[in-house]
Amino acid sequence: MQQDGSTPPLRVVIVGGGTAGWMCAAGLSRLLAPADYAITLVESDEIGTVGVGEATLPHIKTFNDMLGIDEAQFMRDTQGSFKLGIEFVGWDRPGSRYIHPFGTFGEPWAGVDFQHHWTRATLAGRDVGSLQAYSYAVAACRAGGFEFPNEDLKSIRSTYAYAYHFDAGLYANFLRSWSTARGIERIEGQVVHVVRDPGSGHVAALTLKSGARVEGDLFVDCSGFRSLLVGGTMGVAWHDWSEWLPCDRALAVPCERVEPLTPYTRATAQTGGWTWRIPLQHRTGNGHVFSSRFCSEEQARDTLLGALDAPALAEPRLLRFQAGRRARAWEGNCVAIGLAGGFLEPLESTSIFLIQAAVTDLANLMPVRGGGVDPRLAAEFNRLFEIHYDRTRDFIVLHYTANRRVGEPLWDHVRGMALPDSLAHKIALFEASAAAPDYKLGLFSRDSWLAVFEGQGVLPRGYNRLADRIPLAETEAKLGDLRARIATNAAEMSPHAGFIATYCARASAA
Amino acid sequence: MTRVVVLGRDAALWLAAGVIQKALQASGITVTAVEMASALGPADACTTLPPLEALHNQLRVDEAVLIRTTRGGFTLGQNFADASGATPAFLHAYGSAGTAIDGKDFFAYWLKARRFGLPAGLEDFSLTAAAARHGRLMLPDDESEIYGRCDYGYHLPAQAYVRSLRALAIYHGVTVHAAEGADAILDPETGAITALQLDGGRIEGDLFIDATGPRGELIAALGVRRESWRAYFPADRMLAAAGPRLAAIPVYAEVRASETGWTGLFPTQAQTHVTHAYASALTSDEEAFRAATAAGGIALTGAGVRASDPGRRALAWERNCIAIGEAACAFDPVHGVDLHAIQLGLVHLLACFPASRNFAAERAEYNRVIHSAFERIRDFQSAHYVLNRYGRSPFWTRALQAQVSPDLAHRIATFAARGDVAPMEDESFSPDSWRALLIGHGLIPDSYLPTADRTPPEQMKAQFQRMLGFVKQQVLKQPTHDAYLAELDG
User: Fold this and answer.
1) What pLDDT digit, counting tens, does each position of A50-92 carry?
2) How far is B326 from chain A (nearest CA, A)?
3) CA of A127 to nearest chain B CA: how many angstroms apart?
4) A61 assigned to active site
């Protein structure tokens, strides 16, 4: 407690109860002292959540661990499966495929990052294979296997992390039970009016359809695309990124589960966009992200249903969106988290991570009990928010622009479009020198960039000359050893489906 | 791109030539050093930051030999003191303070405990700072490494250090030419440098490194303008002198603020190097000498003065010329970052070394990273001035009123609000350094991380006691600086 105990707890009101709202409620209730913060979540059963089959990044394990969630229980309750990466099919050109793994490519030798050694050998004409052959996680995906990363950091079996596929609606329910059991107040109701303080312009209270009034000191806007408070009430501008990310629609449909249960998400490029495939325990989530400029809803529907690997379990559902973000996520005493703050298509499973990062930042920069909103801390929140969204955007745009699908209007357009300077530089630098982005803040790591560069035909013509300090024959031999070590170990992995069955199978699904 | 020519003098010349030769000889790259007259006097010292050890390792520098032959010493940080005694001193130690509690960063707990009357200062929780205060080194072991980071730098008599770097560069295969000066010969089409014209002949190359110091003779010849950082820093002149070796050699530098500026004391085995930074419009060279003598409390000899003119080239790398060290950026002398800036330049140059003649992307990357890294250092230094509490003399009033960059203003604001060191890319100074600096200047945050309140207070108190006990016990195990130096002499 930072002030004397006589001041009342700070009232935090979360608006919206989807994944963002409940991650926020659970995270804040675990990170903050219960005596100092009164956390309320307002949600309406009348408003549907966007949650479809959801794929995540490994960071979510940190979030769940922080909450103290039992992994097997959580996976059972959300129909979860494991995820070691994303397979991209047809992004370079029709039929091409690569995996963006949650793991490293090789290891640094002589203080020089791995890809320089690989590039050097490749440019010298040695047959050292694709970069893909140097990722244990890629080999595990191809083998359809899963096991927990080895704790011995010298083992090749330690060189990856994992995430989950789960039903996002079930995850929100799971976190709702978790949060309400720990003192978060849940109010059912639809917000019909927002009351502002005439002096400060801050939001003072929400009026619900029932006439009830919910007062607060800080409002977290998890209202989704509507951005009720930050976009609506506070009127914060929207930065439209559709010039780089022209997809603006998605159709989502579940289908029956098929075998084998793949330990990865699949994203397949299509003429008018791309389709996703997310394997859960009880079914497979599918969807088609497309650009209404280049593809009609009917075409998208046909493509989606034609690509299913099992019978559909429902009618495809349409979602509309626009890529972009708010100019600021924190304005006055309102903080937008999730879709209310920004949207990037689910190509790299970033939406839950972006929520998680915002919740962590908010806990750190939160007003203290007895204190008001501090604009200095709001500015820091907004700085980090920008870094997260803008860096993620560059990575996603790379998937579009680096393609050789010549003759397809959408793909011709994104190949030729003017890129953000920050991305154009990253591509030029990699082509010249094999140096991949390696920043400290925000997604994604160097290995992720490498996977997509190589997978989509962006290839280096030079490398870090420090790699020359190892004789080429020795480098070639080390590369061969590494490939063999990965292949041998991956072959010994247990099948993903079997692992799930023993670890966390849903009783009804067994 | 196989012929590298380095023009310059002193540490920048020999570090650049030696490091590039050693790192890239396997790639068939040859380095020629064109050596100009030294700008160093016998009173000059090099102060180094911890990362330099890694660069020394690349050059195969043997630390014991280095300290023995240069008659240098170790440093665990800088003690910032007020000569008048009015403002409490603080140590910027090259190590971390405290260890995590409940899986969360120590600092928030320290801020919290302070509110409840904890008398122990931040540095009492730092092994490095506590060792420095006791005149001892801090040699890490398994236990202390779990507790926190303990780093160190050196104080090296500059002339002796440069002699050993020169010998190493030659040992690694650098070809040396001496020259009074050199003219850049430019390709009439591309404007790139094709050769250096010396009195005795012409040296051709593919890449040219400008290590000539603040004048940046090659980079300036390519028309790259200089951006002044004058507005950030109150001192424009620096005196360097030498005093006798101290009876017990302190294991840190002392930076003592007085009315006219500050006096730096850098103890080595050879002597005590003393500097005084001041503003020429306010203080004459004679007054500066008297101030340095008074602040140091020792008799000084061999005094020399030079300009201090912080600023950088708009581009550190233009065409095929890379400016390294002061040719790229001159810093304020207060934190002794000159060698660190050389190191940053070289490390990034090796990372961006051209793969072919078409190196626009590598050059752009180099300029981007160096631009940002230099600004981070400038901001750290600038904070030392704008936050000072050294009284209202004209010098320190100027310092208070100096320019503040938007990034630094934001950093100070988030720290003042929450004790948060806003994370930024390309940062040379750790959060521990920033905390030592900001807390040292009396910037006590208005709040601390609310997540620290999840930890039961008893757990926090017990941990604090354990830490203070551990620091004391570890420090008493350490050798004194003098004993350690005597051992190196064998």
Assistant:
1) 555 689 999 999 999 999 999 999 999 999 999 999 999 999 9
2) 25
3) 21
4) no
Query: Residues in chain B, how many?
Result: 490
Amino acid symbol at A161? A
A428 vs B: CB within 8 A = yes
Residues 6+ apart with CB under 8 A from A294: A246, A271, A272, A273, A409, A410, A413
Residue A311, classified by CB atoms within 10 Å of its CB into exposed (0-12), middle (13-18) or buried (19+), is exposed
| pLDDT-flagged residues of chain B (< 70) | none
pLDDT at A227: 97
What pLDDT does residue A5 have? 66
- Has residue A508 got a pLDDT over 60? no
Tracing tokens 């409620």 back to the chain, one arrives at A25
Interface check B444 vs A, CB under 8 A: no
Q: Is B20 on the interface with A (CB under 8 A)?
A: no
pLDDT at A509: 40
Position B478: which residue type? Answer: Q
Ordered alpha helix ranges (H), B312-430 = 338-351, 360-386, 394-400, 406-418
Per-residue tokens: A135: 């990722």
* CB A33 within 8 Å of CB A147: no
Structure tokens belonging to residue A458: 């962006």
* pLDDT over 50 (residue A97): yes
pLDDT given for residue A124 in this prediction: 98
Q: State the pLDDT confidence band at A6, using cuts at 50, 70 and 90.
A: confident
Q: Is B351 on the interface with A (CB under 8 A)?
A: yes
Q: Compute the distance between CA of residue B347 and CA of residue B341 in angstroms, rounded to an integer.
A: 10
The pLDDT score that the predictor gives to residue A54 is 86
* Chain A residues closer than 8 Å to B414 by CB: 376-377, 379-380
Distance separating alpha carbons of residues B147 and A165, to the nearest angstrom = 38
Query: pLDDT at residue A282 above 50?
Result: yes
pTM (2 decimals)? 0.97
Domains assigned to chain B: 3-39+57-74+156-229+310-376 (3.50.50.60), 97-150+405-477 (no CATH)
Domains, chain A, in order of start with CATH, read 10-81+166-237+323-391 (3.50.50.60), 87-151+395-496 (no CATH)
Q: What pLDDT is attached to residue B200? A: 84
Closest to B365 measured CA to CA, from A434, A457, A175 = A434
Q: Rounded CA gap, B421 and B164, in Å?
A: 38
What distance in Å separates the CA atoms of residue B411 and residue B423, rounded to the nearest whole number?
9
% chain A with pLDDT above 90: 95
Which residues does chain A have within 8 Å of residue B451's beta carbon, measured at their own beta carbons?
A: 31-32, 363-364
Spot the catalytic one: A61, A83, A440, A478.
A83
pLDDT tens per residue across span A455-476: 999 999 999 999 999 999 999 9
Gap between the Cα atoms of B266 and B125, Å rounded: 25
What number of CA atoms fall less than 13 Å from residue B402's CA on the CB side?
26
